[in-house]
Amino acid sequence: MKFKGRRVLTTFEEMSMSYCRKWEERIFKWIREHLLWLLGSLLGGALVYFPMMSQDLVNDADGIWHMSNFISGRWEISLGRGLLRYFDKMRFGVVSVPLNTLLALLLFSVSAAMILDMFDVKNKILKVLFTGILITSPVVCATLSYCYTSVNYGIAFLFSVSAAACVIRGGKGRFWMLGGGCIAVSMACYQAYLGVTCLLLLAAFGRMLLMREEIKEIRRLVLRSVLSLGCGGVLYLILVWALLFRAGVGLADYRGASSAGLTGMIMNLPDSVRECYLQYYDYFMGRKMYADLPLMEVFMFCLLILCMSVVLVQFVRLFRYRKGYAVLLLLCVMLVPAACNAVLMAAVGNAVSILMSAAMAMSISLGCAFLPKEGRMGWGLQRAWCLLAALLLWFQLAAVTNDQLAMKEGKTASIALARNVAGKLISEGYLAQGETIVFVGRPADNPLFTRSTAYQNANAYARFGSWAIDAGNYRRSWMGVLSGYCGMDLNLGAEAQYDRIRQNKILDNMPVFPYEGSIREIENCVVVKISEVY
To answer: Do 179 and 232 form a contact (C-beta atoms < 8 A)?
Structure first.
């Protein structure tokens, strides 16, 4: 019996080693095949975001709050993002704009290459356009501006793409379980990328219809997708509750985190679905993909016409083959907004921010995998798509460049203002005894703060110095500017002190800095009135 047990153990070890070697060979083969492409994509991204990396540009919210060393804690765990802590520890909590930006860009580049492989896109022009549109998206630019956690967002995006790859490329095995694990890991870093997985699975379903696959193969894909999403959801909930229990915290109310669950999802499904479509419409028509530049209205109209033309041509061709497939294709197209905003159905009462728009940003560029290839109509639509994709790439380059200029100008103006205030405090002896300092107001609302055209046209996250009007943001953002950029350690007042002083009538009659009387003692604090907006 002892001999048999050893033999069984040896056989198991041999099988495990063989399986690992097989996957190792596959991974290194994929890397060899895509190495030059990944390096080119990384180099292109580094050139686009060189201002951000060379000048340590971040946004003035979370970005400026964590500028040197950061490891996620109880707050992130309460948001259902408990794995962030462990990925932060893998980087030793180092916050470096150049390093973290390059790492995040590499993760997005690998994800783009995997998506192109998933849909067998071989045309080099289409590959360049798809990758370029993803990398230069204002969504990615905003993600990189959260330097302290941008790598974690890249990891979440990669796992969301990997989940779809396991289902689509997994064959007849049980790779849907591995896909479920990838979904759980992705959501435990950032839940919004669930929409990326859903969009890719929906796109794979539509592509199988266009390729006229057998109905049993399509059913298998649908079954694997449902099983993978269900498995991922269950694993995520188990993981979240285990991490919450370990940390001794509960779910926070931030962005509907505490409302996530099957019961709330079912009860609020009609409202959630409607919100998915409203957010999708707003992303393209209201926010214009966060690239609101001259001629964007014309571009959006042309893009709409092109998308309708592609759908119509493919519908007609498929209708001649099998009417049921054609109807399913239309259903597939109609479900795109719901797939992109799937997180809205999981977390009731959530709202879509620019960071959560990755799936919507990708939904148009993914159209390169669905262009008709036969006939004059196919030739014309392919050229039209390449032209509009090139224009979108150019618009996005302009938008992210403008956003980086705005961050630079806002940072420069905020630093200059902070140094002027500190100099005044020192010259008038307010810092001699380590007094508590309270800055009331935002730098962007001060008359000394310069606002160029770039700043005025930038997206909200890039308007450095225009942080949210509340005590917490005031204190953390001013502290970030003073310590991170000016190298000053001032004793800033607590949030409760900010709130009390903002209600004091004396503040209303004070002029703003740098005018005489803009600094005075109120309630045992040295108050500096920066602006009239507070």
So the answer is: yes
Percent of the chain beyond pLDDT 70? 92
Mean predicted lDDT score pLDDT of the chain: 88
301 burial via Cβ count (<10 Å: 0-12, 13-18, 19+): exposed
Number of C-beta neighbours around residue 244 at 10 A: 17
Q: What are phi and psi of 437, to 5 degrees?
A: -105, 135
Q: Which residues lie below 8 Å from residue 465, measured CB to CB, with a gap of 6+?
A: 60, 410, 411, 413, 414, 442, 443, 444, 449
* CB environment 19-46: b (16+ within 10 A), e (fewer): eeeeeeeeeeeeeeebeebbeebbebbb
CA atoms within 13 A on the CB side of 297: 1
Confidence class for position 248, pLDDT limits 50, 70, 90: confident
Return d(Cα 452, Cα 3) in angstroms, integer.
Answer: 80
> Is residue 464 within 8 Å of residue 406, measured between CB atoms?
yes
Q: φ and ψ at 520, to 5 degrees?
A: -160, 165
Cα(198)–Cα(204) distance, integer angstroms:
10
| C-alpha span between 60 and 177 (Å, rounded) | 40
Sign of the C-alpha dihedral computed for residues 119, 124, 130 and 134 taken in this order: positive
Nearest CA to 188 out of 142, 135, 243, 246 is that of 243
Tell me, rounded to whole angstroms, the distance of Cα 350 from its chain centroid.
15
For 333, phi then psi, to 5°, come to -65, -40
Q: Which residues make Cβ contacts (< 8 Å) with residue 372, sequence separation at least 6? A: 310, 313, 314, 317, 378, 381, 382
CA atoms within 13 A on the CB side of 226: 6
* Six token digits for residue 258: 């505490």
Query: How much is the average pLDDT of 465-490?
Result: 88
Q: Side-chain half-sphere of 16: how many Cα atoms within 13 Å?
A: 6
Peptide bond before residue 514 is cis, with ω within 30 degrees of 0: yes
Predicted pLDDT at 1: 45
Place of tokens 């890991």: 185
Cα–Cα distance between 337 and 273 in angstroms, integer?
Answer: 9
Nearest to 157 by CA among 106, 100, 105, 111: 111
Identify the helix (H) or strand (E) that includes residue 359. Answer: helix 358-365
**What is the residue-wise DSSP string for 336-358?**
HHHHHTHHHHHSTT----GGG-H
> How would you class 164 by CB atoms within 10 Å of its CB: exposed for 0-12, middle for 13-18, buried for 19 or more?
buried
130 neighbors 121 (Cβ within 8 angstroms): yes
CA–CA separation, 345 vs 264, rounded Å? Answer: 9
Both tokens of 8, joined, read: 């069984």
Give the dihedral sign, CA 168/174/175/181: positive
- Residue 226 has a pLDDT of 93
| Mean pLDDT confidence for 51-73 | 91
Tokens of 528: 């500096």
Give me 154's structure tokens: 């890249």
